[in-house]
Amino acid sequence: MVVLDVSLNELYKLLNENLSEEELNEYLLNIKCELDEIEGNNAKIEVKDFNRIDLYSLSGIARELKGILNIENGIPKFEIKDSDYDLIVDKEILNIRPYIVGAVVKNVKLNEDRLKDLIQLQEKISQSFGRNRQKVAIGTHNFDLIKFPVYYKLTSPETRFIPLGFDKELSLREILENTEAGKKYLYILNKYDKYPILIDSNNNIISFPPIINSNKIGRLDINTKNIFIDVSGTDLEKILLALNVIVLTLKDFGGEVYSINVIYPDKKIKTPELKVIKKEMDLNKIKKYLGIEIDNNKIVEYLNRKRMNAKIENNKLIVEYLNYRDDILSEYDIIEEILISYGYNNLKPREIKIYTKGGLSNERKIINNIRKIMVNMECIEIYTPILSNKDINNLLNEDREIIELINPASSSYNSIRVYLLSSFLQLLSENNELKFPAKIFELNRVSYIKNNKIIEDLDLLYIYSDYEVSVNYSLKVLKRLFKELKIDFDIRNSNHKFLIDGRQGDIFVNNENIGWIGEIDPNILEKLGIKYPLTGFEISIKELMKYIKYDI
Amino acid sequence: MISEIEYKVLSILNDNWKNLDEISNELNIDKYKVLRTLGFLKEKGFIELKEEKIKRYELSEIGKKYLKEGLPERRLLNLLKEKKEVNLEELNKYFDKDELSFSLGFLRKNGTIKIENGKAIYIKDIETYEKYLENIDENTIKLFKGRKGIIEEKEEIIYYAKINDKGKEILKNYKPEEYIEKYTKEIIDRKIYKNKRFRPYNIRINIEEENIGRYNPYLEFLDKIREELTSMGFKEMDKYSMIISHFWNLDCLFIPQDHPAGDISIMDAFYIKNIQYIEDFPRDLFENVKNTQLKYFKIFDENISKRTMLISHDTAISARTLLNAEKPGKYFLIEKVFRYDTIDAKHFIEFNQLEGIVLDDNLTFLDLLGILKELVVNVVKAKNIKFYPAYFPFTEPSVEVYAEHPKLGWIEVGGAGVFREELLRQFNIDYPVLAWGLGVDRLATIYLNINDIRELHTRNIKKLQE
């Protein structure tokens, strides 16, 4: 989830319009953003669509809102001027971090809010979309201090320069080992013995991508007018998209965009590649699945308000949009744009007329039937978490392998229960309150590994507790249950470690062992600080289901 | 009406105050029962009842000991009488310090012993006061009030009762022999009820309520929702499992494998340690998904796809249901999902989701809104509904649903959308599938009136019993 910190003044300046908090929230919801909180001039805005990195800045949000508010329609205006600034990519670097693109934007009008927004934009893009700078890392630099051409190449870890925020030179190795940014992004470079740098023709290091800028060239302040942007990474399409978003924002901050020439060993490209994308869509399909009757010219108008141009030719809808977004895959993406523009809350929900026969699954019917029998025997149904503490599980486990989590959220829930009894004992050990006599049951999921296979089962646990208990109290309930289910069972001697010797048994149906019955060993209870005598049984319902007729 | 014991008590009361002890002795009924009966009679207005607080002295534990063994001065005197003289130091062995110093002082003052050269020497015998301990009267108090810990002051409440006119009236009309006390089989067999009346009870008496069998309230709530859904023609999905591959949970839903966790909560999942890979999918579907992933996201790692995890959203089961769903078809599911989270009053790592899909030719987004509206009316019990654009990787268009709850105002209740064509193609489905998910746990907390989401799972059995 991406949450932006934005200045409302600056947003309203870009919009040329002031909005009330209520209006702003309503409009933001319509562009898949949400106003999280407002404090004076500062607002926190959540951007929910992670395919829309253009919304990670004030200017991007303003651009989208202008369409919705009908302040400005169609493809945003832009102009890119050619230049003779060259960025030369060394052959050696292609094996490590193969792609870099860039642009120069001049006469940008920055202020505190805009500078903060620009830095935030870079960070958010490289975090989420850029996979923590692995795929995309962005640097913005003071163009006036750079002598072109600029070189992107590998260098020794002992190369030294003053990184942003420091007052003395550090080697690249020291930066990786000792600085915060270095440690955070070390993982991207740690398998290489040479590191990338961006260096100008005066031999001044501009930055150490994707780790850190230089302290001088790579530092922007509110007086910086002319900016050189580099975006490096492992995915050319992604870094081009990121560059488009950055230059559009700087353009919205008053800048003029200049392209640069990126010279690879085998090819030369001019970036940014900001351009209009043209896609042909099937108009009939759009109309069919749109669900609303609207004229062709209305379709065009609605798309205009989503910052697209559109026209209709021979049953084709020709859609044009600027490539700061890359999320238009099919007709359905266009349908959504039209519907959003039309306003979801202006749509008339249609009552669905499909006749289908509803019903519960057979498993559910059986579960509910058994629960009903238990409740009719005056039992209280409990509902405990499926995840449980491994140590408690271990107290009960014999021939099953306990399923453990790699990344538990808490030691109370670091494994899956092998028996419902685990969860019940865990519950009692955490909250030791019970009223005598207590008749308790749970029908729920357990899971474990047996013969190297994961078994998922549904179990029924019954527990009886009073000042005095005996296994007969469990047996009575078990007998009634099986009588109601019309299934025969027998009990054979067992020696489970968690049940009292000589007062326990295994429950068999058709010669298959489906569970245990007995009195819980007080030695187990003592370990968990439980002070109630307990008897009970636990049976596998999945096993039982084989013998239950479905027509309940 | 009065009960038998009330009658007994009433009948021995007269116009003079009688205290509780007297009544209890006279009737040979326990004092507490008499007192309770007096309470009832007072409430019914048949007697006057007053209480008096009095101070009373009684022997302490030490006092009782002295009564049995003799006061310490008596014991000292007896000892000296026998031995004629004893070293003071030696006396320490027989008496405690306080007892000894009091006794020596007391006996010397009365001239019955003398102390010389560190020895106590016997002179003559005198009378000591043991007999005053036998019955506590004014003398006892005078003699022992100053001495530490022999008698204790106690406060006691004495109840007095006398009958009033209304009581006399009821007494006159009471005919015990005409009533049947216990309703037994014999009463029926011998038709005793023909000649006698049953004694009326105080049916407002306070007794403990009967035990009850009870469904878990939260599961009962989920059952009610299931009932609503089946009555809307939805069939319950039967392909749920809690342990599932990365493939089902994420890959087949058009979610790129390298998407960073944190952006979408469904990626905050738990992974299984013991069996790290699982193949729970058909091979041809796997190939389709792999091709889709490679086409749109450019990467696909088969091993990641086989990672074993706990299901983090029920849309995974909707996807499984697509494998052999009927058309037209409406399916739903309420089942557990698991997400890594910090555990507090608002978050727990296990919760239930209500998930559904609808399949048919020609379905549109408006049909989806129609279903959502019906769900909100039937499940959320809200009249008003609002829709906002949303983003889910697996649907387009997507919508977030807000409902105006009678108590809480506008709340977000779920998300929905039309499954992406790119996703459906993997299952060889070429018609629309509407999908939605509602958060039922939030609704459950409202319905059950609880503030802590962890309480949806049982935390206190006694509470359920009561």
Write the layout of secondary structure elements.
The complex is a heterodimer of chains A (552) and B (466).
Chain A: E1 2-7, H1 8-15, H2 21-29, E2 33-39, E3 42-47, H3 58-68, E4 80-81, E5 86-89, E6 99-106, H4 112-129, E7 136-142, E8 150-155, E9 160-161, E10 170-171, H5 172-178, H6 180-189, E11 195-199, E12 205-208, E13 212-213, E14 227-233, H7 236-252, E15 256-263, E16 268-271, E17 276-282, H8 283-290, H9 296-304, E18 309-313, E19 316-322, H10 331-342, H11 362-376, E20 380-381, E21 387-388, H12 390-396, E22 415-416, H13 420-430, E23 438-450, E24 453-465, H14 471-485, E25 490-493, E26 499-509, E27 512-520, H15 522-527, E28 534-540, H16 541-545
Parallel strand pairs in A: 4-15, 5-8, 5-15, 20-23
Antiparallel strand pairs in A: 1-3, 2-3, 6-14, 6-15, 7-14, 8-11, 9-10, 11-12, 12-13, 15-16, 17-19, 18-19, 21-22, 23-24, 24-28, 25-26, 26-27, 27-28
Chain B: H1 4-12, E1 18-19, H2 20-27, H3 31-44, E2 47-59, H4 61-69, H5 72-83, E3 85-87, H6 88-91, H7 97-109, E4 113-116, E5 119-122, H8 131-134, H9 138-144, E6 151-163, H10 165-173, E7 179-180, H11 185-189, E8 197-198, H12 217-231, E9 235-236, E10 243-245, H13 246-249, H14 283-297, H15 302-305, E11 308-310, H16 315-322, E12 329-338, E13 350-359, H17 365-380, E14 385-389, E15 395-405, E16 409-419, H18 421-426, E17 433-439, H19 440-448, H20 461-465
Parallel strand pairs in B: 7-8, 9-12
Antiparallel strand pairs in B: 1-6, 2-6, 3-5, 4-5, 10-11, 12-13, 13-17, 14-15, 15-16, 16-17
Helix pairs in contact in B: 1-3, 5-7, 12-19
